[in-house]
Amino acid sequence: MSKSTGKKSAPRIAVRPVVTATSNRTRSTASHTPYVVKHHRPWIFWAAGALVIAALLFVSSLADSNRPGASSGISSLAVGSRAPHFAGTDPLTGQLIDSTYLAGRNFLYYFSAGSTCQACMTQAQALQHDAAQLLRDHITLVMVTNDSATSLAASARSYGLTIPMVADPGGVMTSRFGAVGGGMDMGANTADHSFVLVDRHGIVRFHEDFPGMWISTSALLHRFPTME
After folding, report:
1. Residues 6 or more apart from 71 whose CB is under 8 A from it?
2. Are residues 111 and 211 in the same domain?
3. pTM to 2 decimal places
4. CATH number for 156
5. CB contact set of 165 (below 8 Å; sequence gap of 6+)
6. Smallest Cα–Cα separation from 174: which of 209, 201, 145, 132?
7. CA–CA separation, 23 vs 40, rounded Å?
């Protein structure tokens, strides 16, 4: 029996492709990086946006509180409402002007800062000059200023005014009639350049502020409703 003389072949070993741990970690990190960024960015944007909006609202509130004509917390006397009681003494004549005693007449109250405001006194001169137009429409004019009685009397003489007038240095009646905090924003309890028309029944028929510090009598009358 013959012996085989051939060499034995080496056993075959299956070689698997080597995948290093490093390549796996790199691929895993790269594939997850976009997800991580997308997960956190919306929170950053929302937080930044909220801060911007809050800042804008704060600045806007400051601007509104400081702008001319900003509300002072005193509401305007609404058209159709009943006018509050009015009473004061004319510093020129000493005559009492009282809405209770003078019921049955249409009154136009002209509120202004008074002698410290030249435009206000010039407006009063124009109204006095055109008194006939007011009387034709059955309207009696009363000027109300924030002067002291002495200052108002002196200023009235200087401007040649003889129309009925009342000094309201504390701004009590001015505030009661809501003639504060309109387009002029002259300060606490200081009158705006305002007109309040009250009919013979004590009802407010017109109430408007004029920041331009002037309106002609004819233009003013055209804004009024028909008065009896």
Report:
1. 181
2. yes
3. 0.67
4. 3.40.30.10
5. 90, 91, 92, 142, 143, 144, 145, 152, 156
6. 145
7. 26
Q: What is the pLDDT of residue 188?
A: 63
Note whether 140 and 197 are same-domain residues: yes
Indicate whether 197 and 94 sit together in one domain. yes
CA distances from 4 to 1, 8, 10, 58 (A): 10, 10, 16, 102
**Amino acid code (one letter) for 193:** H
Q: Are residues 101 and 153 in the same domain?
A: yes
Domain assignment of residue 172, given as a range: 87-223
How remote is the C-alpha of 22 from its chain's centroid?
67
pLDDT digit string (tens) for 137-157? Answer: 899 999 999 999 999 999 999
Beta-strand relationship, 204-209 and 96-98: unpaired
Residue 59 has pLDDT above 80, yes or no: no
Assigned domain for 75 exists: no
17-52 per-position pLDDT tens digit: 544 444 444 444 444 444 344 444 555 655 555 665
For residues 162 and 165, what is the distance between their CA atoms, to the nearest angstrom?
8
Angle, CA 149 vertex, CA 72 and CA 84 arms, to 5°: 50
Q: Same structural domain for residues 98 and 209?
A: yes
Q: Are residues 110 and 34 in the same domain?
A: no
